[in-house]
Design brief:
alpha+beta; Rieske Iron-sulfur Protein; Naphthalene 1,2-dioxygenase Alpha Subunit, Chain A, domain 1; 2 domains; eight-stranded antiparallel β-sheet; 6 helices; 21 strands; 16% helix; binds FE2/S2 (inorganic) cluster; binds fe (ii) ion
Length: 401
């Protein structure tokens, strides 16, 4: 798990004006809320008074949970602004000066693609990885499905690696692969790997044979049919491209024909070591009518379930630490490329020291992901989440564990 990337916190439509939303990311809790102008804010969820959960259960009856653009702690009513400062402590008298130390971490926010993203880390703006640009979003000729979330009970690296794996389609997704029509000649074509043009990851293209598109009218999501019609009796070549951006974003472009494209984006909220919430954005440049959103989502959910069923059974739950504990093939090239990017993020000092975190978290210590404000001011109440210096230090810790 890494700090210093943009993480999805909550879908825009799920963040109202009256109630804050709590989200766990990287093993710690955050609260998201909107101020009077509708601007979204994301703070560390832990109240600096005595550990109340700012987004937690509310006993305040009909009293507002958000006052003057501040989120109100449900325990003793301290009020925190979007900048993380405590603006009011009712028990010392309304409007009385509040100690500056009462602040909580406040994170940069961008609301895009129907998602509230927060930059979870302290890297200054000039050097931080930008939020991935979905270039076709909002462009003429493209339509975005409403973002859906998928909760999956496994480590995010397993989830990302699955999206980079052209060899599983044949077995996991009946409509994608070659479906064993010619087992003797079947093989996964070579992958061409290059850096992602926005940096922070890589990209590969892959051509494969696929079953014919179904006839119009055969539109049942259940049996794996697709809703996009266009009868083609012969098997056909499809081009797919996949890649990563950061440790937790993945995209797949599926070019059914030269004119018909899906572009799918998986923004993964790393909840903790065992759970991931995938914010899934599906773009398309055909079947643009809104009425196709439903069938396309239904279809995507069938495919997602096929993946979830397999990935929930992998052992161990996350990828093994040593490469000798797996036998990788050329078709796993995307996975190798992903892991080498993770090592680059290790060398930036952005990996959370999970052993240390596990050892102390929630015993007598509450941790926070450091926000950029920690670079310019001191006196923070919560301890920063422990990190590993670089990949050499990581290997040493892992060998000792
Ligand atoms: S714990 Fe939040 S106000 Fe007391
Ligand atoms: Fe899959």
């Amino acid at each position: 798990m890494y700090i210093n990337f943009w993480y999805p916190i909550v879908r825009s439509e799920d963040l109202g004006y009256d109630t804050p939303e709590k989200a766990r990311v990287l093993g710690v809790d955050f609260v998201a809320f909107r101020d009077q102008d509708g601007n979204a804010h994301v703070l560390s969820d832990t109240c600096t008074h005595r550990g109340g959960s700012l987004g937690g259960a509310w006993s305040g009856g009909n009293a507002p949970r958000i006052i003057n653009g501040c989120v109100v702690c449900p325990y003793h009513g301290w009020e925190f602004g979007g900048d993380g400062e405590c603006k009011n402590v009712p028990s010392i008298g309304y409007g009385t000066k509040v100690p500056p130390r009462a602040k909580v971490d406040s994170y940069p926010v961008q609301e895009k693609y129907g998602i509230v993203f927060a930059f979870l880390g302290d890297e200054p703006e000039e050097t931080r990885p930008p939020l991935l640009e979905v270039e076709e979003y909002g462009q003429e000729g493209w339509r975005a499905n409403e973002v859906i979330t998928l909760d999956v009970p496994y480590h995010y690296e397993r989830s990302i690696e699955n999206g980079l794996d052209p060899a599983h389609n044949e077995f996991v997704h009946p409509t994608h692969g070659f479906s064993a029509v010619n087992r003797e000649t079947y093989r996964v074509n070579e992958l061409e790997i290059e850096d992602h043009r926005q940096g922070w990851g890589f990209w590969f293209t892959h051509r494969f044979d696929a079953p014919p598109l179904p006839q119009k009218g055969h539109q049942t999501a259940k049996d794996g049919d697709t809703p996009w019609g266009d009868a083609q009796p012969e098997r056909r070549q499809v081009t797919a491209a996949s890649g990563t951006y950061g440790p937790h974003f993945m995209a797949t472009y599926i070019h059914l024909t030269d004119q018909k494209m899906f572009r799918q984006y998986f923004f993964e909220q790393i909840i903790d070591e065992h759970n991931t919430r995938i914010f899934f954005l599906n773009m398309r440049n055909f079947l643009l009518d809104k009425k196709n959103d439903g069938p396309i989502h239904a279809r995507n959910k069938v495919v997602a379930k096929q993946d979830i069923d397999i990935l929930s059974t992998l052992y161990p739950e996350r990828t093994p630490l040593s490469p000798t504990k797996e036998v990788l093939m050329p078709a796993d090239g995307g996975i190798v490329a992903y892991r080498s990017w993770l090592e680059k993020f290790d060398d930036m000092g952005w990996r959370i020291d999970i052993n240390e975190f596990r050892r102390r978290n929630n015993k007598d210590t509450a941790f926070a992901i450091p926000c950029p404000g920690r670079r310019t001011s001191g006196n923070w109440v919560l301890e920063e989440i422990p990190r590993i210096k670089n990949r050499a230090a990581r290997k040493k810790i892992e060998r000792a564990a």
